[in-house]
Amino acid sequence: MTSVTPNPTSADKAQATIDAHSQEFLVFSLGDEEYAVDILKVQEIRGYENVTRIANAPAFIKGVTNLRGVIVPIVDLRIKFNLENVEYGGQTVVIVVNVADRIVGIVVDGVSDVMTLTPEQIKPAPEFGVTLSSDYLSGLGSLEDRMLVLVDIDKLLTSEEMALVDSTAAK
Amino acid sequence: MDISDFYETFFEEAEELLGDMERHLLDLDVDDPDPEQLNAIFRAAHSIKGGAGTFGFLVLQETTHILENLLDHTRRGELSLRRDIVDTFLEAKDMLHDQLDAYRNGAEPDPEAFERICRTLKQLALDELGKSMGSDPPSAASAGAADKASPEPPAPAPRDDDTADAQGGDQAPSGAGSDKGGEGGDPRLQVALLKVGEKDRQLLVEELGQLGEVVAQSGDEQRYVVEMTTTVGRDDIEAVMCFIIEPEQLEITPLGESAPSAGNEPGAGAPARAEPQEAPAAAPVEPARAPSAAPAAREDKGGKTRAAPKGNKAKGGSESSSIRVPVDKVDQIINLVGELIITQAMLDQTASEIDGVTHSALHNGLNLLKRNARDLQESVMSIRMMPMDYVFSRFPRLVRDLAAKLDKEIELVTEGKSTELDKSLIERIIDPLTHLVRNSLDHGIESPEAREAAGKPRTGQLTLSAQHQGGNILIEVIDDGAGLSRERILAKAHSNGLNVSDTMSDDEVWQLIFAPGFSTAEQVSDVSGRGVGMDVVKRNIQSMGGHVEIMSRPGEGTTTRIVLPLTLAILDGMSIKVGEEVFILPLGAVLESLQPSREDLYSMAGDDLLLKVRDEYLPVIALHQVLDVAEARTEITECIVVIVQGEGRRYALVVDDLIGQQQVVVKNLETNYRKVPGISAATILGDGSVALILDIVDLHRLSRRKSNPRAAVTTSSIQEVHPS
């Protein structure tokens, strides 16, 4: 298990800009890129271990693991997003999210912090993207010199191309 | 609060009572009826009538009323039982059941059926009792007098005499009390309702109208006084009222003998007034107890006090000792206990690496934990278990009816009623078992004449038995009939275009009758013979993870054996290893395992690989190839093949190693993921990792879709075989 220790400076910043409409996001890294998901979707964060492979599944579905007695599929977003250098080490982290009444684990390179974004800081996602369709983004978070890709994890994980859900996966 | 809240309780209660009634009717020795049984039957009818009256199910009340009258005569020895009378009673019981179902679905029962059964029963009463009743003057007064002697007080509708019955038959029973206005002699009671809201009060007054005749009513919500004449004792009134209000809210004072007076329509005079509803707050606790307590308590009017408290006690006992719990709650507990077992196994594994001498306390503690956890698991699993009696108890009636229809004499024997089986399975076994029993009765057991000719007793015996064997339950349907005819089955199979040979083993021939559309019955009867039964039976049982076996000897009978796992939540599995991955094979599908030798491997059409096992050629499916396992052994002669069987297909599954046999807790993969081809479910191993449970049938399908298995094993071994 890996615990999240929010970076103190960003936490201070978040505190300063907090208002009623701001949203909290969990920021994670895939390679050099920074992504974020709505923190309310996140159930827990744990290490990558003991994943049982599932035959004949797409490469980004790493398999299933035992989360306290519940069988949970593990998706590697790095493979899904065509990133190079997919490695599994001590820093590899699984974010367990709760979407559409399902529990899914997503493998990421690391979790950095929890940030609060005000509506002004969230820019609409541009209409492009071949690997990651803008349909699966809820926007781009702009934070001084950083850009966070805000992933709409609900839409992404229930999408047909993720093949996680039976109805959409049916050929 | 609404009285309809209690409907469900009543329906369940009534269903149980009808079940009791049927059981007793079937058990009844017509020539020498056991008075206790007659009483029990009467009580059941009576209790249903009471409940039906309370809830205003008039048709049901009326039907039970007529039935109850007849039963009462029977009980008192005025009506001597015959088989056909029992049949009529059973028919009436069925009718009551239909009516109950109709009410349950919010509909009114079929009035024609009601009329018919009433006519039948009344006719029966007339035919059988005509003489003895003839001496009884059919006046209302005598009916009232008879009333006091008869122990059936709640509905004061005319009874004990057929003329009155015929009049009262079509009348709304709630009003029936009023036509007794002329009767004197009933004790008069003053019933005071304290702090009862108007809505409840109306119900209560109506209720009192059912119990006797409401003479006067007045008062306000603080104290509402109802004067009534009734044959019912105050205890009984209290018991009925407790449906709705607390005993403290009720005051019953006897007023002495009533003078004949004009009856008010019950409830009609209740003044309309709005008031706060504080009374029913505590009432909802009551319904579980009340429906049984009330009818039973009403019993002890007319001298049958002995029977009534007994029934009351028995009911009370069973109610307090069981609770209704939604199945998903139980499943959740089972899941959690499964987790506990896995955690315990993990601890055990870790602790085994710790020095046992210096940490003996830890080891002792862990051993204790292990034992407790297993005990806990066993008890929790037993919550879902139900006795087979639940299934078997519906067969006496079926057998009786069918035997009569087929003109056969059949004795039903049940063994192992207390054998327990998972609830989800027990509900699904009923239909297949019914098919098998019907088949045995229709095709298996011969007519009494044929049996005598064959030197067998006239009465055929059908045995239903259940027993545990390891992790399985064996349910057998045994008949001592003619047995299966090998020749006829084979001939039929030929004409059906099935691929059969005369040299097939008996077992294989018997399995043919499970083929779709297969029936050797010379005549299609409405009992069986359409050939749709047996394949459905087999499919149903296979879907439950079980299988069917048939043993038959000509002239001696047939035994059909259903083998089922005890539960679907736990599976007996064989863990196998392919590469670095562990899979679980359902043990039920495994026939044997062996290490193949090259001489036994043959290739077919250049692509398929076959393994010869004792004169049988089995297709070879390499698991690592179907499931894309890396680093698996590819030299087939170094592997192990497991011969598996699923849906009648046998094949050889190539795996690397067998690890062992173990019970696994079945976990659904589809909860968070989706159906995976070739995999039926998942489980968690002792080390906390997930292992997939293979689906033998689906795996076969999957392998056909994928490329040929020949590429999976090194071709060298095959090419050497090929020239042969």
UniProtKB/TrEMBL annotation, chain A:
Q: Does the keyword Iron apply?
A: no
One family name in Pfam for this protein: CheW
Q: Which UniProt keywords apply?
A: Cytoplasm
Give the location in the cell: Cytoplasm
Residues forming the CheW-like domain are 22-162
Which superkingdom heads the taxonomic lineage of this protein's source?
A: Bacteria
The protein's matches in NCBIfam families, at most eight in alphabetical order, are given as:
PRK10612.1
The protein, known as: Chemotaxis protein CheW
Q: Which organism is it from?
A: Modicisalibacter tunisiensis
UniProtKB/TrEMBL annotation, chain B:
Protein name, entry field: Chemotaxis protein CheA
Compartments, as annotated in UniProt: Cytoplasm
Query: E.C. number, please?
Result: 2.7.13.3
Q: What is its main location?
A: cytoplasm
Q: Which residues form the CheW-like domain?
A: 570-705
Pfam families in UniProt: CheW, CheY-binding, H-kinase_dim, HATPase_c, Hpt
Q: Which NCBIfam families match?
A: PRK10547.1 (NF007835)
- Residue positions, PTM Phosphohistidine: H46
The protein's annotated catalytic reaction(s) are:
ATP + protein L-histidine = ADP + protein N-phospho-L-histidine
Q: Where is the signal peptide?
A: none
Instruction: Please give the InterPro entries that the UniProt record associates with this protein.
Output: Bact_Chemotaxis_CheA, CheA-like_dim, CheA-like_homodim_sf, CheW-like_dom_sf, CheW-lke_dom, CheY-binding, CheY-binding_CheA, HATPase_C_sf
Histidine kinase domain sequence ranges: 318-568
Entries under PANTHER family matching the protein: CHEMOTAXIS PROTEIN CHEA, SENSOR HISTIDINE KINASE CHEA
Q: Where is the HPt domain?
A: 1-103
Q: Which keywords are on file for this protein? A: ATP-binding, Chemotaxis, Cytoplasm, Kinase, Nucleotide-binding, Phosphoprotein, Transferase, Two-component regulatory system
Give the source's domain of life in one word.
Answer: Bacteria
Which region ranges are annotated with the description Disordered?
130-187, 255-322
- The gene name reads cheA
Question: Entry's CDD domains?
Answer: CheA_reg (cd00731), HATPase_CheA-like (cd16916), HPT (cd00088)
Q: Bias category Low complexity: which stretches?
A: 134-148, 165-177, 258-296
Q: Which organism is it from?
A: Modicisalibacter tunisiensis
What the protein does comes down to: Involved in the transmission of sensory signals from the chemoreceptors to the flagellar motors. CheA is autophosphorylated; it can transfer its phosphate group to either CheB or CheY.
Keyword Phosphoprotein on this protein?
yes
